[in-house]
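Handout, section B. The chain below has 331 residues.
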Amino acid sequence: MRYTQLGRTGLKVSRLVLGTMNFGPQTNESDSHSIMDSALDAGINFFDTANVYGFGENKGRTEEILGTWFAQGGGRRDKVVLATKVNGYMGVGDPWPNHDKLSAVNIRRAVDASLKRLQTDYIDLYQFHHVDRDTPFEEIWQAIDVLIQQGKILYAGSSNFPGYKIAQANELAARRGLVGLVSEQCLYNLAERRAEMEVVPAAQEYGLGVIPWSPLHGGLLGGALKKEREGATSGRSASGRSADALKNHAVREQIQAYEDLLDKHGLQPGDTALAWLLTRPGVTGPIVGPRTAEQLESAVRAIDVELSDEVLAGLDEIFPGPGPSPEAFAW
């Protein structure tokens, strides 16, 4: 495994991040524990979750699975840089007032609930899962400062923030003498590069580590057409976002060109999509969310994949980025 600093902090994290969203909904507790053990064995020390994972009536279940894993001891908690998130409503039905978003009262309530589920006394990286247009950053940073002083969290990060919100948050934090945001978790992959326009530049300008989620774009970049052909002979068929995207003729041609390029160079699609993100400026590491131990092993291979200039140029031709702002939308 290779490691890097998380943004401008002194915190050293693995270049792959273990995403846990499937733990509970897709992967049972025992198998989830085995995957986390394997991740540690592979040198992955950065685990990402959220209070709402588990979903529906089971929100919080994923944090509970991490908690029972930490409770097994063996240095598990000390070895892990633990990241979770706050914003979403943890109940069922319409939110009760003050039980979601980023008010000081909900942040206080949510962090204590997460700590209980996670069976730990601190969270390394506490992330705002989405913007809250109704709560001023003065209130948010006051709440976060209290949690840091109490030792309940160490760093704060954002997720799904536009560039201007990253700037707004960190300018206000600087005026208050606070560290501010140290990371941004955003949708970013070969097929979805809009983050390069303003989010990634803002993160770089303010020293945030970029943590891409959905690095395979719902499986589309993981050999979707090859799997579709294999499914035709085995009785399996593609499903979900990948299958829906492939109904678009232009997308289908683009993915065919992608898979043809990689066949030419003897590369695997999933490995390449992850390895490409590891070459991108500002990226700390992509989030991989395995449902099985085999999927984790496949993701770890990407660390050793070297992409030639020819391959990188070919990927840019197939999946052109938007370019920087304002040139991307103005002269």
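Note. The chain has a mean pLDDT of 96. Compare this with the example in section A.
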